Structure formats: C-alpha cells, structure tokens
Amino acid sequence: MRQVTVTEHLLQHQKKSPMATGRFTLLLNELILSAKLISREVTKAGLVDVLGFTGETNVQGEKVRKLDEFANNVLIHRLRRSGVLCAMASEENGDLIQVSGDLPHGDYILIFDPLDGSSNIDVNVSIGTIFSIYRRPLHKSPGAPSLAEVLQRCDKQVAAGYFIYGSSTMMVYTTGNGVHGFTLDPSVGEFLLSHPDMKIPESGRIYSVNESYWNSWDTATQSAVTHFRNAKNARGKPYSSRYIGSLVADFHRNLLYGGIFMYPARRGEDGSYSGKLRLTCEAAPMAFIVEQAGGMATDGVNRIMEYTPTELHQRVPLFVGSLEDVRAVREIMLRGGCDTVPGR
Ligand code: P6P
C-alpha cells in the first residue's frame, strides 16, 4: 500500500470532508505531535522514573500517575498554542481550560482523556488518549466560551478519535466520513494509513464486561450479560469473554474483531445506579467512531449520540460495539424493565 500520511489522507478527502480545512489539519497535527511525545514516554516508562503516583488525586478522585500528568500537560501545552481552539476540557481537570487571552485562538472545542486506562500503566497493558472535537456555536457569547457552549449534544461532534499505545502506536479517528486507522512508523515518525475505512462486524464474537460487578447490576443488566454467556457468534461458536480494563484497548479489539463492550450502571451504597465512564471524553467519542464504523452505542437503551451533557464530567452506562449485539442488549433492557437508564 502506498504510504499515506494523515495530512495527505485529509487532503485526499477534502471534498467529502468539510473538516479538511487547514485549521482542522493544524489541530490534528498538534494532537499527533502530542501523541508522539506521550508514546515516547509510555514506551520507556519502565526505564525512567515516570511510573507510580504523583501523590495527587484528580477531579475524579483517582490517584494521578506521573504519566497521566505528563500526558495531560503535553496536550494542554501544545493545543493551547495551536491557535485554533477556544476551549479545552480534560478528564483530569475539574473545569474548562480557557484558551483565549494573549494567545491566538479559534472556534474548535477539544475534550480529551489524556491517558485512559492509566491503572494499567505499571503492568504494560495498552492504554490510550481519547479526543472529541466540537465547533463553537455560531451564536456565540462574547469572550471565552461558556460551559453551555461546550456541553453540546453528542451528535454535534465534528471529529473524534483515539491514540492507542500498545504493540504499536495507532491513531483511529473520524470526521464523519468513515473511520480510518493510522499506524506510527517510528523510523520516519509519521502515522501512516494502515486501516482505511474501518467497519465493525455487524455481529460480534467477543463480549467485554467486568463481571465482578454482577451483584451491583439490576436484573435486566444481568440478563443482558447472561445473553452473551450463552450466545453463539455468526459461525455458531460461543462468544469469547475478553476484558482488559482499558477502554481504548477493549474498544479497539472489538472494532476490529466484532463484539460488545459493556460498562453497565452499578448500584451505589445509596441504592442509586450510575455509570463509571465519562460521557464527554469517553462515551461520546467512542459512540461517534463506532456509528461511523457501522456499529452502535447506547446507555443500554438510549443512543449516546442523542445525549446532551448536563455537566462536564457526567458519567453514563455504556454499551458499544457491533450493531446486532448492542441491539440485543436494548431489547433485553426494554423487556426487562431496565430501571438503571438515566433520563437523557
Ligand atoms: P473497572 C480506566 O480506568 C477506565 O476508565 C476505562 O479505561 C476502563 O474501561 C474502565 O475504567 C475499567 O473500569 O471498574 O472495570 O476497573
């Protein structure tokens, strides 16, 4: 296959993708440079003192690992200077990261999880950076964007993607014209097109869920997981259970092989149900990607892309993957009187 860089691919699709503007290309290239810097640190994590904790906790109440902090700082530093953003939001930061001020800025809004799956950093399991891009609404308020301008309906995303730092470093992204995968060739320092127009198999052969939470699920969720324990794939074989505990790694494998990733709502000590994954920086970008690849993403019943976030770090249940698998869950949830699906 002729070597095609991300920029060449964007320009080739210029006509089809209104996103292939110079300003979007610049934004994507800054994300790519950030990912190269993060990848370099991730791959040598075992050699220098970037493992372990900083001793701080983030807005999620999670211990911040040094690589988390490094990745977050790289992305904020580089993207703040891209000149094309008006606001950023990170899974690691409680509030919006304002961009305007003395630096040039533009109309894109970037929401990201700098290093998802970071609990796996010390054990050499694939982790990733997830990003979601919106445009600032036209009827914009003067000055820096308000939170309301950032919390847009998920189907207003203009681009979404992830970098996965594994046996190779890959970028998978969509601008609404299909899903395309690029693999980093370290010898030239370029992401080269390796997976053009990715499509997820319509029905899968893998289900991914942390079954240790069985007792905290409602009965409809338990029925959905039981369905896959007994289901047969398109070739009449049982589904395989695979769960890495790193969303990007589990999602990427299922995108290629076909299957469903489930992070259902769990009952808390107060008896209420809530999801763990964040809507804006995890569920929404993965939903955009999977729908562009022919799959589906719901909270069990409702389409993730129809959500309008109520807060920056809103959590949702997530069922994402092959169309027939996510549809099967939806039928079970509706039949089972699922009472854990929050209103949109
Ligand atoms: P659990 C990582 O912390 C993460 O946010 C996702 O990457 C992953 O899918 C999930 O949490 C794992 O959560 O509760 O199964 O450890």
Provide a descriptive summary of the structure in words.
There is one protein chain. Helix 2 (22-43) packs antiparallel against helix 3 and helix 5 packs across helix 8. The radius of gyration is 19 Å and the shape is globular. It has helices at residues 6-12, 22-43, 66-80, 147-150, 219-230, 247-257, 279-292, 323-335, and strands at residues 53-57, 63-65, 85-90, 97-98, 108-116, 127-135, 159-165, 169-174, 179-185, 190-195, 206-208, 240-241, 259-263, 266-267, 273-274, 277-278, 296-298, 315-316, 318-321. By secondary structure, the chain is α+β, with helices and mostly antiparallel strands. The longest helix is centred in the N-terminal third of the chain and has 22 residues, at 22-43. The protein folds into 2 domains: 6-195, Fructose-1,6-Bisphosphatase, subunit A, domain 1 (Fructose-1,6-Bisphosphatase, Chain A, domain 1, 2-Layer Sandwich), CATH 3.30.540; 206-335, D-Maltodextrin-Binding Protein, domain 2 (3-Layer(aba) Sandwich). The strands form 5 sheets. Strands 4-3-5-6-7-8-9-10 form an 8-stranded mixed β-sheet, sandwiched between helices. A 5-stranded mixed β-sheet has the order 12-11-13-19-17, sandwiched between helices. Bound molecules: 6-O-phosphono-alpha-D-fructofuranose (P6P). Residues 116-117, 119, 210, 245-247, 276-277 line the site of 6-O-phosphono-alpha-D-fructofuranose.
